[in-house]
Specification:
Layout lengths: L1 E9 L5 H11 L20 H6 L6 E6 L3 E7 L7 H8 L4 E7 L6 H12 L4 E6 L8 H11 L4 E3 L5 H10 L1 H10 L4 H9 L4 E5 L8 H10 L11 E9 L5 E9 L1 E3 L3 E3 L2 E5 L2 E6 L2 E5 L1 E3 L3 E5 L9 E3 L13 E6 L6 H14 L4 E5 L4 E6 L2 H15 L4 E7 L2 E4 L3 E7 L6 E9 L6 E5 L8 H13 L14 E10 L6 H18 L2 E15 L3 H10 L3 E2 L3 E3 L2 E9 H4 L2 H8 L5 E11 L3 H8 L13 E5 L2 E5 L35 H12 L34 E6 H7 L1 H9 L1 H19 L2 E6 L10 E5 L2 E5 L6 H12 L4 E5 L3 H9 L3 E3 L1 H23 L12
Parallel strand pairs: 1-3, 1-4, 4-5, 5-7, 6-7, 25-26, 34-35, 34-38, 35-37, 38-39
Antiparallel strand pairs: 2-3, 8-9, 8-17, 9-16, 10-15, 11-12, 13-14, 13-16, 18-20, 18-21, 19-20, 22-27, 23-24, 24-26, 27-30, 27-31, 28-30, 29-30, 32-33, 36-37
């Protein structure tokens, strides 16, 4: 009889646990059907799951079909526990993905589908809740084909039309159908196994309709994996039983595992005391577990979720990541060591709970997926460890990466110690995490030292230099290293490796990352405009609305920092008729890095636990060399044979500063080279002090050159307090108010004005240019920022015209200044406009009084 490990996955409240109950009941494993709302299901055994009515932890059960023994794993459906569901995927042979008929494909459904694809899990699809009002089978199938896969097929009836449809959509089955007019069960089974075909079934798990057909298909169209004779096992979960014994849940992927087996030769004390075969809350002890079985072992303390045994390697990092960080507020009488031990114990059990301890502040911080996970953590600490903790100071769990390739050097040579390490640090693909490797020959550095360096790279949470956030999406390669035959010890390479990473990051152009949500927003059609305005304001990208009767459906992606509180806003402005659902969307560039960096106020050189400096030896004693001077002291050549430090050109600044034109010119020429300007452009720029005189001084005019003024619209809106206040209620109103002010200003200045607004996050947006009362308003296209448009335009216009650019973006000021344009800050523009408005009111007042028209000198 074949052994199959089957997982059930779904968006929360799609009926996943109810389907599990129906399968167990129909196969005789339980005597009565439990219900989630009655708190008597076989699988939701934890008291917290019964109270909340949701699955929090993955649970195991067993049932038999005609020719198969099925191990069933019921997984959490809530996005806060998606990491628990993801880790379970690594041990599945097949999966059943539930889709609620009334809701069709939801945001988290798409996330689960992507995870199933990532782990290559063959999948059956069960469309549940067909007894409730829905759009019909064809509409649901069409939605699945559009949002998940075109390779799904309705297996409700195996008619001639069914075989024709399957053959048409599945290339590997087409030839067989042409020859025989049908497709064999074995061919269907193979296509399902290879994820070239996804069977769909319809029914109602609550009413036990359609479940029998799903069970028959699981018997007929599944295939047991071929397991090797050598032993292998994969750990997917760590829990604790009611007596406090640690349970290590694993799947045997080869050979067998017996009680009293020693897990590691390095630690003879680590051996299996008991093997348990769980079903719900109960279990039976077995002497030996064979390939294909899921068991829980006692007596092991060194393994973790994702550990591999035998021929299995430890698994890579999960795709799901924590997005929030909280600080634990412990009662004054709590022993901090005991509390930290409790947190660490829960960290080993929770797949994506991250615990950190700040030795300076003596504070414990946790990183979690969401508020529900935090509430569960709080309850676990209270009931299991008698710690009544509160959580405060919620913040986003930021990460950092780099944009350019650098070589980091670390040297550690106090007296009678020696190690030097050179690391090539390169940006990786988004979501790739940290990847380590070596390109050093064993003739230069022995294999053991290289392995030690790679171990030290992997063992540490490397911190970025912008905010001290964890480093990610970086490839680090060992490219050179040196040891001393007599004085080098293992700890020396640890120090040199850590310092090499840090020294490289100090050189690199660092980027701050923040977590993103994928979202599906449903609002009444009358609220569509408000919804799109909100999403545009908070920096979310989204597709055009889809109209379903009187409901608008908007799908998109945006930062967790601004979307996490948005459900309450949706409920308010739709009067309870709207909803928004989220799924984890990975990490991407932070929208407000300067603000976050300033708030964190992190000093990378003052972080003594992550020093970028190196230690050298001279005259029998060690001395510290600053990171930017290491290249002049190192003992090995750089990969590039260059010894100068290349500082980042556009990394976010830690403090705002208004640079003078001379400083900007110096920065630009130091970075890009000497500026060559036409003779007529070498005019002295005017500098006026508004504190000394109401009327600005007039600069010497350029010779017969028309003037263009380019204005970074959103930069100005955020710089002017009155416009920023208006924008918090309506961006349209803020844009309109700015445009009107600019038009009045233009009437007095008589110059060419281009007002630029950034639309690069609006999907499908094309560049638009609007003539508005004598000025031009430009809305940039998708993937084009206002900065890039202004930089390109100022460069071209500067060849023939005099160009001014209004922005307070320091980096943009450097670039446009180098193009020969004159820069003015947002505050200077504001004062120009206020002076022009004063002059205009004076003219109107004098004209209305019948007096002579005054001639007002306005600066050009």
């Amino acid at each position: 009889m074949k052994k199959i490990t089957l997982g059930i996955l779904a968006h929360v409240d799609s009926g996943k646990t109810t389907l599990s109950e129906a399968l167990l009941y129909n196969t005789g494993e339980i005597r009565s059907l439990g219900r989630v709302d009655h708190k008597n299901t076989h699988l939701d055994t934890n008291y917290m799951e019964k109270d909340r009515g949701i699955t929090i932890f993955s649970h195991q059960a067993h049932f038999k079909l005609s020719d198969a023994e099925i191990t069933l794993l019921d997984t959490p459906g809530h996005v806060d526990f998606s990491a628990e569901a993801e880790r379970t995927l690594s041990v599945l042979d097949y999966a059943v993905l539930l889709i609620s008929a009334p809701e069709k494909v939801q945001s988290h459904t798409k996330t689960l589908w992507d995870l199933l694809s990532h782990y290559s899990v063959p999948t059956f699809i069960f469309i549940n809740k067909l007894d409730l009002e829905n759009e019909g089978k064809e509409a649901i199938l069409s939605d699945i084909r559009e949002n998940l896969t075109p390779l799904c097929a309705d297996f409700s009836a195996l008619t001639d039309e069914f075989y024709e449809e399957v053959a048409t959509n599945t290339d590997c089955l087409f030839d067989e159908y042409i020859k025989s007019g049908k497709i064999s069960d074995s061919s269907l089974t193979e296509a399902i196994k290879e994820r070239r075909l996804f069977p769909c079934f319809f029914g109602s798990a609550l009413k036990n309709n359609g479940v029998d057909k799903l069970a028959e298909a699981l018997s007929a169209y599944t295939k047991e994996p071929i397991y090797p004779e050598a032993f292998g096992a994969r750990v997917y979960k760590i829990t604790e039983d009611d007596k406090g014994q640690r349970l290590t849940h694993m799947k045997i992927t080869g050979g067998s595992l017996k009680v009293k087996t020693v897990i590691s030769e390095d630690n003879p004390a680590e051996k299996i005391n008991e093997l348990r075969l769980y079903s719900g809350a109960g279990y039976k002890a077995i002497p030996e577990a064979s390939a294909g079985q899921i068991v829980a072992a006692t007596g092991i303390t060194s393994l973790f979720s994702g550990s591999g045994l035998g021929f299995e390697e430890d698994s890579s990092a999960l795709l799901s990541e924590p997005v929030f960080t909280y600080t634990a507020a412990l009662p004054p009488s709590t022993d901090i060591s005991y509390a930290l031990s409790a947190f660490k114990k829960l960290e080993s059990e929770e797949t994506k709970l991250s615990v950190s301890f700040n030795e300076d502040t003596r504070k414990i911080s946790v990183s979690v997926m969401g508020k529900i996970q935090l509430e569960i953590l709080k309850r676990q600490l209270s009931e299991r460890f008698s710690i009544d903790v509160n959580f405060e100071s919620c913040s986003i769990y930021y990460k950092e990466t780099i944009k350019n390739t650098v070589e980091g050097v670390g040297h550690f040579e106090p007296l009678r110690h020696y190690a030097e390490v050179h690391l090539l640090i390169e940006p990786g693909k988004r979501g790739s995490g940290l990847v380590f490797g070596t390109k050093v020959g064993e003739d230069l550095l022995s294999r053991n030292w290289q392995r030690l360096i790679l171990t030290h790279l992997a063992e540490k949470t490397h911190r970025g230099v912008l905010t001290g956030a964890p480093l990610t999406d970086v490839k680090i390669t060992l490219v050179n290293g040196k040891a001393h035959l007599k004085h080098t010890e293992g700890g020396d390479f640890r120090q040199a490796t850590y310092r090499a990473v840090r020294q490289g990051l100090m050189q690199a152009e660092s980027v701050l990352l923040e977590p993103y949500y994928e979202f599906v927003l449903k609002v009444p059609s009358a609220s569509t405009g408000r919804a799109m305005t909100d999403l545009d304001r908070i920096g979310a990208s989204f597709s055009p609305p889809e109209m379903l009767d009187s409901i608008s459906v908007i799908k998109g992606r945006g930062p967790v920092s601004v979307l996490s509180e948005y459900p309450d806003t949706v409920t308010a402005y739709t009067h309870g008729l709207g909803s928004i659902s989220f799924s984890y969307g990975g990490y991407d560039e932070c929208l407000n890095p300067i603000e976050v960096i300033e708030k964190k106020n992190y000093d990378p050189e003052g972080d003594l636990r992550n020093s970028p400096d190196s230690v050298f030896c001279s005259g029998g004693s060690g001395f510290t060399v600053k990171w930017d001077e290491v290249f002049t002291h190192m003992h090995l050549p750089l990969l590039s044979d260059k010894k100068e430090v290349l500082a980042p050109l556009s990394a976010p600044k830690r403090e705002k500063k208004d640079y003078s034109d001379a400083e900007l010119l110096e920065i630009f020429e130091r970075t890009y080279g000497k500026i060559k300007r036409p003779k007529e452009r070498r005019e002295e720029e005017r500098v006026y002090d508004y504190t000394k005189s109401e009327k600005p001084q007039k600069a010497k005019p350029y010779k017969n050159l028309p003037t263009y003024l380019l204005i970074d619209g959103y930069n100005v809106i955020y710089s002017w307090s009155e416009l920023k206040s208006v924008s918090s209620d309506s961006f349209d109103a803020a844009r309109q108010l700015l445009a009107d002010k600019i038009c009045n200003y233009n009437a007095m200045e008589d110059i060419n004005i281009i007002l630029v607004f950034d639309a690069y996050k609006v999907k499908g947006k094309h560049r638009e240019i609007e003539d508005y009362n004598g000025i031009k308003i430009v809305y940039t296209r998708e993937a084009e920022t206002a900065d890039s448009y202004i930089e390109k335009t100022s460069k071209e216009l500067s060849k023939e015209y005099r160009v001014k650019v209004a922005t307070s973006d320091n980096l943009e000021q450097v670039i446009i200044f180098g193009h020969g344009a004159v820069r003015i800050t947002a505050d200077e523009l504001k004062k120009d406009i206020e002076y022009a408005e004063t002059a205009m009111r004076r003219i109107i007042s004098e004209a209305s009084d019948g007096g002579a028209t005054s001639t007002i000198e306005i600066k050009q």
